[in-house]
Automatic annotation (TrEMBL):
Lineage of the organism: Bacteria, Pseudomonadati, Pseudomonadota, Alphaproteobacteria, Hyphomicrobiales
Domain of life of the source: Bacteria
Organism: Martelella lutilitoris
PROSITE patterns (UniProt xref): ABC_TRANSPORTER_1 (PS00211), ABC_TRANSPORTER_2 (PS50893)
Domain named ABC transporter: residues: 4-235
Primary location group: membrane
Gene Ontology CC terms: ATP-binding cassette (ABC) transporter complex, substrate-binding subunit-containing
Any one Gene Ontology molecular-function term assigned to this protein's record: ABC-type transporter activity
Tagged with keyword Nucleotide-binding: yes
GO biological process: carbohydrate transport
Record protein name field: ABC transporter ATP-binding protein
């Protein structure tokens, strides 16, 4: 097992495109680290660097204390599981799992024992004589993992290994891979564009965008305290609502004004986030997660509320997802897109609001929603960094 350190790593392709810029990332020995980000953010490039499949143009890659920039892939003792499982169709499960060890000249008895143990761990013992064509997608996936596991590698690399599976199997395998990783304790780096995979599987998650690491944190910390607008919008489903607001100092504290609505940050909120005081007078972006709203029956007595018209309701059984239009008549509310981009002052903001499945609400109704000031994220409109 090993830790893996990206020390000021950069990758520039021959055409001059910088796929990764100045990446500092310490993957700890034994941890399950997920690299997540939208298509093209550089996550596969980073993973391929660890495997030795991608030339590094800047910085140092240190694997298990050794500078590995120029180490040949076969000398790194690292196993990679790809999107396509790349099993040998003419070999059975046993032979597929043992293949890597056999070509390395492992002794027959030791090989058989190792394959047996690995198959047991992966719950494949009953299928050892089957060919890949006789297996389900999930079983094939496990064989592919078995081929990597059997080698006792220093680290496991996985590049979107579940993307070919249906939703149900993907859910199962998420749990399965995370469980196996805990069992074996092998340092694992897992690449995905799916934030649900990232959140459910990773001990820590590195969020990347345009080749730049945005935040490295536990799933919980990413959700609770996103470092910037991009991470805030990327992590969490349905995604966070964003609204442009003006911060105004008042007697009661700091007021965030969004068109006709006001959210007050009082003394205890300001003590927790002193940066809000420093931003008084600024135009900022507020972020509120869809699940943080509470409908209120008596709007007059409630504070920190928005009122709008329910446009439509998606009934998901245990929850409802209501789309609520809070656009003011004067158009002073600005729509901020899911990606955190300010789309201009054109359309009325529509909030995504997650409500309890038992809530009675219909399209066309007016609804008032309260939100605790502690659950309102505030971002600098220029730098897009969280104000804390
Ligand atoms: P995806 O989820 O779509 O696989 P990714 O985050 O894994 O995306 P990478 O495959 O790491 O992205 O690619 C990062 C960036 O580098 C992309 O913008 C891609 O277009 C670019 N890139 C990849 N290979 C080359 C190349 N040979 N020459 C120039 N640019 C490249």
């Amino acid at each position: 097992m090993a830790d893996i350190i990206f020390d000021g790593i950069g990758k520039r392709y021959p055409d001059g495109f910088a796929a990764i810029a100045n990446l500092d990332l310490h993957i700890r020995d034994g941890e399950f680290l997920v690299l997540v980000g939208p298509s093209g953010c550089g996550k596969s490039t980073a993973l391929r660097m660890i495997a030795g499949l991608e030339e590094i143009t800047d910085g140092r890659l240190i694997i298990d204390g050794v500078i590995a920039n120029n180490l040949a892939p076969r000398d790194r003792d690292i196993a990679m599981v790809f999107q396509s499982y790349a099993l040998y169709p003419h070999l059975n499960v046993e032979e597929n799992i043992g293949f890597g060890l056999r070509v390395r000249g492992a002794e027959k008895k030791a090989l058989a024992e190792k394959v047996r143990q690995t198959a047991e761990l992966l719950e494949l013992s009953e299928h050892l004589k089957r060919k890949p064509g006789q297996l389900s997608g999930g079983q094939r996936q496990r064989v592919a993992m078995g081929r990597a596991l059997v080698r006792d590698p220093k680290a496991f690399l996985m590049d979107e290994p579940l993307s070919n599976l249906d939703a149900r199997l993907r859910g199962q395998m998420r749990t399965e891979i995370a469980r196996l990783q805990k069992l074996t304790g092998v340092t694992t780096v897992y690449v995905t564009h799916d934030q649900v995979e990232a959140m459910t599987m990773g001990d820590r998650v590195a969020v990347m965008r345009h080749g730049v690491l945005q935040q490295l944190d536990t799933p919980r910390a990413l959700y609770d305290t996103p470092a910037n607008l991009f991470v805030a919008g990327f992590i969490g489903a349905p995604s966070m609502n964003f609204m442009a607001a003006d911060l105004v100092k008042t007697e009661g504290g700091i007021d965030a004004r969004v068109g006709p609505f006001e959210f007050l940050f009082e003394a205890d909120d300001l003590a927790a986030r002193p940066g809000l005081n420093r931003s008084a007078g600024d135009r900022v972006i507020l972020g509120i997660r869809p699940e943080m709203f509470t409908p209120v029956d008596n709007p007059d007595s409630a504070v920190n509320t928005v009122t709008g018209e329910v446009i439509f309701v998606e009934d998901l059984g245990s929850t409802l997802l209501a789309h609520v239009d809070i656009g003011s008549a004067d158009g002073s509310l600005r729509e901020i897109g899911d990606d955190g981009e300010d789309d201009g002052a054109l359309s009325a903001p529509r909030l995504r609001v997650v409500l309890d499945g038992q809530t009675r609400v219909k399209a066309g109704e007016t609804i008032t929603l309260a939100v605790d000031a502690g659950h309102i994220h505030v971002f600098n409109a220029q730098t897009e960094g969280a104000i804390r």
